[in-house]
Amino acid sequence: MVSVELRGIQKRWEDFALTIERLRARDGELLTLLGPSGCGKTTTLRIIAGLEKPNSGEVLFDGTPVNDLPPYERNIGIVFQDYALFPHMTVFKNVAFGLEMRKLPRMEIERRVKRALELVNLEGLENRYPEQLSGGQQQRIALARALVVEPQVLLLDEPLSNLDAKIRERLRSEIKRIQRELKITTIYVTHDQEEAMALSDRIAVMNFGRIEQVGKPLELYHHPKTEFVARFLGSSNILELKAENGVVRLGSLRFNVGISGRVKMFFRPESVRVKEGNDAHVVDYEILPGRVRFKLKIDGKVITSEGLLSDIPFDIEEPPKRVGVEISTFAIL
Ligand SMILES: Nc1ncnc2c1ncn2[C@@H]1O[C@H](COP(=O)(O)OP(=O)(O)OP(=O)(O)O)[C@@H](O)[C@H]1O
Ligand SMILES: [Mg+2]
Q1: Which of 27, 200, 298, 314 sits at a 20 to 30 Å CA gap from 168?
Q2: Residue with the nearest Cα to atom 29 of ligand 1?
Q3: Ligand 1 atom closest to Cα of 43?
Q4: Per-position DSSP letters for 208-224, written without gaps between them
Q5: What pLDDT does 316 receive?
């Protein structure tokens, strides 16, 4: 196991520039690169793998630069979006490929392939061909093939995006289980915020070739530093307000923000708790499975609240015209 670090990385193409001053995946951590299409996630992963050369900067494994090492000497396992299994080889041969290249003894190869297939819950399928497997099974084989060489770093580039929703959820918790079991330093690429939240120890949110913020899932979710991070991770309330003497007022509500002047205040709909009271006017409401979403007007501003139906302290069929509001967690952007 190792840490993976990028320092002063620059990669320029005609109409795109990737700039990463510093990014570090800790020993045994699952770090996700999350961002919209074209923001530079795959490029970053390819630089770590040694498949792409940066114009400047260093890639370090456990503090040692690996810039001059070709991919096969970096001891990494990679899984791409499109499985890329060898169609004319059996599952066994596909998984054994990296070990045969390394000329390991036959017994050792069989032992390791068996163990890798157990890890991804596919024992018994050794003699099938990729076309005889479902998409989810093929992607598990790709994962087994990456893991069988016992890499020190695992790189996964949108490994679930070709699968349908149910299988995607199942395989994502399996990836998490395997990663925890092996404690392998993993860099995971996705543009799906839910996947990133569910899987990651930490997330690096990328935008236009730059890293906007790095942090634990809930830290990014409730305390984004930029509007981009706030909006990318889910629905947001963002209000332009004025702070005086370190305090923002919104109708009868007060927030200590510690600064003065114009501020952009951010909070999630789930941070807005509706209770009995007189803080806001109910503009509209929507009942969802088990939850309820309110549009509320306070001081001329419309905000969204979302919470569990069971937490609503009045009859939801006949909500009052005015309600009390409590905002538990907020951030200043
Ligand atoms: N070999 C290349 N030559 C020129 N431009 C490239 C090359 N590879 C990638 N790019 C450009 O770099 C930018 C980032 O691409 P990259 O594949 O890293 O994005 P991504 O975040 O992985 O996107 P997606 O979610 O769509 O996979 C894009 O604008 C792309 O066109
Ligand atoms: Mg990509």
Answers
A1: 27
A2: 38
A3: 18
A4: TTEEEEEE-HHHHHHS-
A5: 84
Q: What would the pLDDT profile of 208-246 be if each residue is shown by its tens digit?
A: 999 999 999 999 999 999 999 999 999 999 999 999 999
Question: What is the pTM for the complete model shown?
Answer: 0.92
Q: Which domains does the chain have, with CATH numbers?
A: 4-231 (3.40.50.300), 237-332 (no CATH)
User: Atom 4 in ligand 1: which residue has the minimum CA distance?
Assistant: 13
Joined together, the tokens standing for residue 81 give 């979006």
Q: DSSP for 2-65?
A: --EEEEEEEEEETTEEEEEEEEEEPTT-EEEEE--TTSSHHHHHHHHHTSS--SEEEEEETTEE
Q: Are 274 and 305 in contact (CB under 8 A)?
A: yes
Per the structure block, which two tokens stand in for 161?
A: 């995006």
pLDDT band at 148 (very low <50, low <70, confident <90, very high): very high
